[in-house]
């Protein structure tokens, strides 16, 4: 089969290779993706792992292309995002878009070796953790490239091939039964509920063909025993098979960061140039849950009845803070399982008050 290393734009050699993955990118690259992570079963933290890994991989690819020297992806602190990122909700869901924003607004993200050594516990779901201040940050994300859903498979392939792995939100319910092979569009449609069906974060690292079926290779955060050594495959279906959304909603919410060292200033034109065709540059992400991506990831599966009932309570009680509180309600329902709406609402309100004074990290 036709394989290639992304030393140049696909247009320079007649198109994309039939198979490509950043797990084996070619001799001129280092380890662009590291070992598979395993999130705690009681902690909806997929968003934090995917945020950190996408930044690290993008940086490694960019520096290798610029310097022509092999570079491994740096190990960035997932704990820092869990402890400090107040735009997201630690073990109670989050999102890459908002996390990229938080990193830029708050001075960057630290290496794991620097931040993790400064906190008393290395457990991602330790409820006593506080944000460690004055830890040196290394990389920052002054912007992001949001893939246009209407641009389809080719735009995602181009972004992966030219910039590195791409962070996506998917409907993750089918993953609970996955033990290998390609999940088809028929098996995993976007669930027909729009943005509310996107509930898990993952990292698309490449593509290939298996038994005649085109697929995306996706890195998960369920440990190496999951699926195919920690990875899974989603059918790279055509638009008529899945509408505009992609298998499991893959194309609905896909983004990759613009990454620099802390202290390096990029102007808007430089940042826009980082976004390949089919992507839209965004310097800041404004959530609009009625129209835009950026849902709360990590709540798969959830009790819809409990969530919807909690929404009504939250909207009345918290007014303008609906977006944040809503996400906490979703996570509460996901982690408890099937629960009553009143219980979810109580948990949400309690967590909302606590988050004003402490890092938000509770898992019910």
Walkthrough of the structure:
The chain is α+β, with helices and mostly antiparallel strands and 364 residues long. The chain has two domains: 265 residues, Alpha-Beta Complex (Cathepsin B, Chain A), CATH 3.90.70; 51 residues. 30% of the residues lie in helices and 15% in strands. It is built from ten helices and nine strands. The longest helix is centred in the first third of the chain and has 22 residues. The radius of gyration is 19 Å and the shape is globular.
State the gist of this model.
By secondary structure, the chain is α+β, with helices and mostly antiparallel strands. The chain is 30% helix and 15% strand. The protein has helices at residues 46-67, 78-84, 96-105, 112-115, 152-163, 239-242, 268-273, 304-318, 322-336, 341-354, and strands spanning 20-21, 139-147, 166-170, 182-183, 200-210, 213-219, 231-235, 253-261, 279-282.
